[in-house]
Specification:
This protein is of the alpha/beta class. The protein folds into two domains: about 170 residues, 3-Layer(aba) Sandwich (Rossmann fold), CATH 3.40.50; about 90 residues, Pantoate--beta-alanine Ligase, Chain: A,domain 2 (2-Layer Sandwich), CATH 3.30.1300. The protein has ten helices and nine strands. Helix 6 packs across helix 7 and helix 9 runs antiparallel to helix 10. The longest helix has 16 residues. The chain is globular, with a radius of gyration of 19 Å. It binds pantoate. Pantoate (PAF) binds next to strand 2 and helix 6. The site of pantoate has 10 residues, from strand 2 and helix 6.
Length: about 280
């Protein structure tokens, strides 16, 4: 695997690949890679001839009170994992390479509506930062397809809507959530958990599973399911952000008839903000 730090070098490395009519799959990341990211890389190897990944901790998607400064940087370990799982090129630019004129004058991409709810309401400006950096990375790599994890379900929808609205031909692929044996969704932020918090953390997924069962049984209202789920999380030691049952089509409150739903959760445990989701089909 070749590691590249500049856009010029990246473009020249990928030119011959494109001329040879080879397909490129792209996996953007912020590094501190784990098996969840590796499932994206392995999927990428199945979708294209050449796999490009990026590591860039994007300051534009963090607000002032968030974990930008302490976000773990583990480039050497990340390179070894990427290489072992079939990545061909790692693009690892610094902030000056990504934002040469600074972030203030950077053109911004805003995917309206969907960016302002759920995580977008809790983290104002977050999805503008994500959509902007992903657009820039797409313009640098020019992949045929790009793979994102479904743990960040709303992020995946923001990017799907963005590529559709901007008439991009990049195929967006959502890869299943990778979980630890106890059900906790793999995330770089799990590294912030103390031993005790790590023991409690799977309650997030267990509570989502409880909500799936309750929704299917239809014995209690959606409102009561949400409230009881929040109470379960708080009893375990979480601080609530949101627990929502939404339409999978647009992440809005579903109509009575809608059967394709998604349970979306965000909650704080100690200093870690954890997210998870489960997709449900009430017809099956
Ligand atoms: O999901 C992430 O790791 C980031 O939001 C992404 C897509 C790499 C953009 O910085």
């Amino acid at each position: 695997m070749k590691t590249i730090h500049t856009v010029a070098e990246l473009r020249s490395a990928l030119k011959s690949i494109r001329l040879a009519d080879k397909k490129i799959a792209f996996v953007p990341t912020m590094g501190n890679l784990h098996d969840g990211h590796m499932s994206l890389i392995r999927r990428a190897t199945k979708e294209a001839d050449v796999v490009v990944s990026s590591i860039f901790v994007n300051p534009m998607q963090f607000s002032a009170n968030e974990d930008l400064e302490r976000y773990p940087k583990t480039l050497k370990e990340d390179q070894a994992l990427l290489e072992a799982n079939g990545c061909d090129f790692l693009f690892a630019p610094d902030a000056l390479e990504m934002y040469p004129d600074g972030r203030r004058s950077q053109t911004q991409i805003e995917v309206s509506g969907i960016s302002d709810i759920l995580c977008g309401a809790s983290r104002p400006g977050h999805f503008v930062g994500v959509a902007t950096v992903v657009t820039k990375l797409f313009n640098m790599v020019h992949p045929d397809c790009a793979i994102f994890g479904t743990k960040d379900f709303q992020q995946l929808m923001v990017i799907e809507n963005m590529t559709r609205d901007l008439s991009s031909s990049i195929r967006i692929i959502g890869e299943e959530i990778a979980r630890a044996d106890d059900g906790l969704a793999l995330s770089s932020r799990n590294g912030y958990l103390s031993t005790e918090e790590r023991r409690i953390a799977p309650v997030l997924y267990q509570t989502a599973l409880w909500a799936v069962g309750a929704l299917k049984q239809k014995k209690i209202s959606v409102e009561d399911i949400r409230e009881q789920a929040q109470q379960k999380l708080e009893a375990a030691g979480f601080i609530r952000d949101y627990f929502e049952i939404r339409s999978r089509a647009n992440l809005l409150t579903p109509s009575e008839e809608e059967s394709k739903l998604v349970i979306l959760i965000a909650a704080y445990l100690g200093s870690a903000r954890l997210i998870d989701n489960i997709q449900i089909d009430l017809d099956n």
